[in-house]
Amino acid sequence: LSKVPDSYRSMISALMATTELDNLTVDVILAKTLAEESMRKNGQAASRISQTKPKKTGPCGHCGSQTHHESTCYKKHPELRPQGKDKGKKKDKG
């Protein structure tokens, strides 16, 4: 237990206080530590999700599309369209 990171000290202390020392095996400690780590990772992911800003999506007040907001509408703001490969409709050359 001396190699356990400081961030897990409180979990180890609680484990030792609630488990009889005869039943405190490496398997029990490992299982509890893995469960704690999983819980911490899930908590961090949930925290990141709650901190992200929601994207502005439809309906667009300019063209009526449900996939974007008027502030990002390429028909209203063609200057916002990414330059480069034309991903839109192909025009006939002939």
Automatic annotation (TrEMBL):
Domain of life of the native organism: Eukaryota
Region named Disordered: 37-94
Biased composition (Basic and acidic residues): 67-86
Protein's organism: Trametes versicolor (strain FP-101664) (White-rot fungus)
Protein name (database record): Uncharacterized protein
